[in-house]
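Need residues for this backbone.
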């Protein structure tokens, strides 16, 4: 084999495995929604098609063990969709396990590893058991010896197939020659190629396909087997199949006569009307008459797909994001250099820089849109987890989700799986009561875990809530004292007790089980969320339930911020948090119990937070009547007033992780590089709020304030 052929084969395999990952997800989602109380034939058909597609591709590449197993899987799904087998909980469990085995077989095939001995034996045996159980059921005929059960050899049948691929078929990694060879394996095939639409040489695009084929096929096969050949290109071509008499007295000759006139062959009763010029136009699309869809109806035959997609290595996108970030920094440096230029000087350069700034912003937004991904990809994994944990704990659990279409940076999405897994396991194991306990207290026997996502204040907020027993604070505090995590007699608030569950090594489980008891789950959650520049809070009401709230940045690359100064230091405030800035009068300031200052802003008292006191910055003004108060909105909807020296201006900044390069700091979410080369810290409003509560800012003495 030539090197080019092997490269193409590797590329086709990579495409196949990418598609298999999506098909596995489709199959698992469909199986998880399947139950004796919820039988949806559309879902069953979707699962069948996914398994069938995996089997077809596996056969093309010679993955014999994968094909053998998926054949058993496909047989059960076929019986299920034809309603020859009833849906039971046991059957659904077996099918979910079979999907897992299929995934492992695909992993071995992808990585070139030998399949472990007996990997699929148990699952295949369970699948065959359901097939045998159905065959041996009431009213079923007695099983016959294998030789007697063999179906009679079907008689030879003749078909004419018109294969008309779209011009971009090659770009999807499909090769028409492979499809034609597969058809030849079904019987005796005569292939004729139509070159009537090949453009002149100087107009020819080497990546576009302009050839069509008509195949006369005779053999012991049927239309379903022929359509299976085109399973992977059904959306990229039009395939018309008509069965002929198989004689040479006119049927096939008539079809080929039409073909030779460069007109697509149309089976009787399935009329497709083509627009004028369709024979010569490379982009001609069939126009269906009203009243019938015609052959290959739908997206595959209509010629008008909603859009085109390509697969791109994520590393390439990451490099592009980094380059855009460097562009933003460079553009800010140039703007900084031109800030002191007198008005009217270098006017063309200033205008060009403004134009560059607009283009840079558009480029950044476009690149971030490429990385944006819906949290649906993470949420879709949770029903399987809920099902397994509920079975292990003997509880009845329903999972409700909302906000699955909320988009966030792909890096954030990928790191959400582990935290959500631990929190949902914790909610089911520790939060929800057993069905009998829930019935005793007047609750439904089935508990509910609600998983939601939404955008709030420029961040993504994900909540995991349950309607269980809530946190038993007395037990939590007792366990923490027993484990030496807090001293005996410590006077902790309810919020502080709730947060004890995040301490390393803490667990309220009496015994270690497969689900909990080792004290690592919630600690892992907090560390993973903190590594993303996020935070987690817990809100619990005894007897009502518990709610975990995760707050994460929408992106880890670029944000719009307002640069502020405090003393000699520069900070960046996320623009989405800022409401307004003002300079209060002396009469607007009030002291609360000599612990903090508040100001009256638009009819509401707002707590003042002195940034210089929180970070111990010398040389700051520290007086709101001479500096500025920046009103910011917290994630809970409240407001804070940050006392700063000056607001320097709005700027788009590149986010640099502080934790990975230095260490985590309270009140700081990340760092950035300003246009003058200085490093500035990006402030975390919620962190500042927490710091101000723990470190009260004393009121400014009245004598120190100037007259209003």
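Answer:
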């Amino acid at each position: 084999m030539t090197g080019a052929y092997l490269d193409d084969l590797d590329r086709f395999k990579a495409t196949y495995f990418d598609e298999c990952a999506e098909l596995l997800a489709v199959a698992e989602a469909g199986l998880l929604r399947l139950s004796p109380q919820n039988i949806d034939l559309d879902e069953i058909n979707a699962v069948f098609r996914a398994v069938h597609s995996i089997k077809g591709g596996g056969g093309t590449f010679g993955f014999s063990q994968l094909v053998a197993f998926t054949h058993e899987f496909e047989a059960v799904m076929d019986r299920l969709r034809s309603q020859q087998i009833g849906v039971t909980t046991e059957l659904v469990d077996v099918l979910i396990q079979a999907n897992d085995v299929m995934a492992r077989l695909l992993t071995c095939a992808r990585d070139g590893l030998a399949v472990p001995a007996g990997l699929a034996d148990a699952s295949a045996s369970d699948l065959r058991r359901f097939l045998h159980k159905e065959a041996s059921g009431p009213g079923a005929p007695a099983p016959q010896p294998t030789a007697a059960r063999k179906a009679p050899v079907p008689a030879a049948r003749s078909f004419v197939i018109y294969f008309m691929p779209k011009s971009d078929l090659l770009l999807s990694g499909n090769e028409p020659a492979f499809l034609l060879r597969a058809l030849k394996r079904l019987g005796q095939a005569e292939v004729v190629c139509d070159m009537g639409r090949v453009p002149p040489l100087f107009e020819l695009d080497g990546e576009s396909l302009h050839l069509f084929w008509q195949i006369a096929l005779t053999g012991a096969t049927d239309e379903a087997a022929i359509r299976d050949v085109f399973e992977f290109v059904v959306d990229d071509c039009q395939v018309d199949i008509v069965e002929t008499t198989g004689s040479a007295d006119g049927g096939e000759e008539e079809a080929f006569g039409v073909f030779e006139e460069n007109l697509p062959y149309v089976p009787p009763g399935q009329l497709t009307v083509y627009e004028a010029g369709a024979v010569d136009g490379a982009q001609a699309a069939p126009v269906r008459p009203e009243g019938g869809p015609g052959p290959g109806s739908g997206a595959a035959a209509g010629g008008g797909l909603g859009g085109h997609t390509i697969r791109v290595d994520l590393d390439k996108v990451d490099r592009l994001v980094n380059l855009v970030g460097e562009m933003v920094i460079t553009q800010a440096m140039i703007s900084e250099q031109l800030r002191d230029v007198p008005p009217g000087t270098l006017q063309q350069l200033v205008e060009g820089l403004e134009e560059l700034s607009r283009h840079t912003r558009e480029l950044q937004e476009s690149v971030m849109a490429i990385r944006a991904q819906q949290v649906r990809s993470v949420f879709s994994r949770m029903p399987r987890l809920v099902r397994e944990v509920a079975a292990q704990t003997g509880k009845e659990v329903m999972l409700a989700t909302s906000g699955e279409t909320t988009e966030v940076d792909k890096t954030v999405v990928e790191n959400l799986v582990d935290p959500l897994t631990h929190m949902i396991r914790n909610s089911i194991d520790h939060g929800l009561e057993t069905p009998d306990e829930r019935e005793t207290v007047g609750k439904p026997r089935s508990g509910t875990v609600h998983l939601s996502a939404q955008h709030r204040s420029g961040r993504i907020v994900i909540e995991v809530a349950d309607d269980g027993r809530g946190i038993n604070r007395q037990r939590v505090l007792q366990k923490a004292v027993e484990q030496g995590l807090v001293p005996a007699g410590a006077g902790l608030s309810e919020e502080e007790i709730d947060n004890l569950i995040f301490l390393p090594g803490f667990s309220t489980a009496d015994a270690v089980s497969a689900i909990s008891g080792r004290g690592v789950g919630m600690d892992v959650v907090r560390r993973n969320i903190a590594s993303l520049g996020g935070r987690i809070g817990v809100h619990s009401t005894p007897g009502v339930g518990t709610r975990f709230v995760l707050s994460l940045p929408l992106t880890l690359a670029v944000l719009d911020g307002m640069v502020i100064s405090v003393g000699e230091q520069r900070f960046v405030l996320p623009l989405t948090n800022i409401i307004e800035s003002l300079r209060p009068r002396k009469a607007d300031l009030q002291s609360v119990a000599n612990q903090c200052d508040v100001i009256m802003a638009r009819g509401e008292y707002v707590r003042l937070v002195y940034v210089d006191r929180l970070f111990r910055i010398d040389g700051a003004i520290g007086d709101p009547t001479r500096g500025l108060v920046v009103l910011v909105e917290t994630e809970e909807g409240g407001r804070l007033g940050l006392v700063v020296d000056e607001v320097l201006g709005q700027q788009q900044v590149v986010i640099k992780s502080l934790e990975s390069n230095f260490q985590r700091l309270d009140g700081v979410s990340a760092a950035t590089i300003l246009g003058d080369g200085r490093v500035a810290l990006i402030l975390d409003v919620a962190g500042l709020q927490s710091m101000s509560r723990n470190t009260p800012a004393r009121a400014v003495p009245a004598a120190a304030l100037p007259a209003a």
